[in-house]
Amino acid sequence: MERKEHRNKIDIALKEIFIPFLREKGFKGSLPHFRRQQSDRINLLTFQHSLYDTKFVVEIANCDPNGITTHWGKEIPKNKVTAHDVVYRMRLGSDKQNIDYWFDYGKESLFTDNYKKIANEIIELWNDAEKWWEENPIDYGKLK
């Protein structure tokens, strides 16, 4: 199976399993970027797919509730900011695995739907994400 076919299948699994879960948690947005507005911050979640392999990371971050201004002066409003726009972020699964964790959706199995398994794995890591968002600092970008 080609990488593009794998990518389509993981996107379908994420849309069927993970994104409804994300909506229940108060997130808005669409693949690959999601935001949850809090009173004192915005929780960010972004999927970043490898350009060369059948893998992706889930990056999470916090930012000011009004968005950020980058160090080069670009203003990014709260409805456009992504985890890639902030410096301080974490890759979901990395703490548990003690590595720079990538979800690999290219492995095929006769007995398991690997795509659904990965979508559910992200849900299983959700408490780690919530803890990180609560305990880690807000990236304000350049102060105005």
TrEMBL record:
Kindly give the InterPro entries that the UniProt entry links to this protein: DUF4304
Any one Pfam family here would be DUF4304
Q: What's this protein's name? A: DUF4304 domain-containing protein
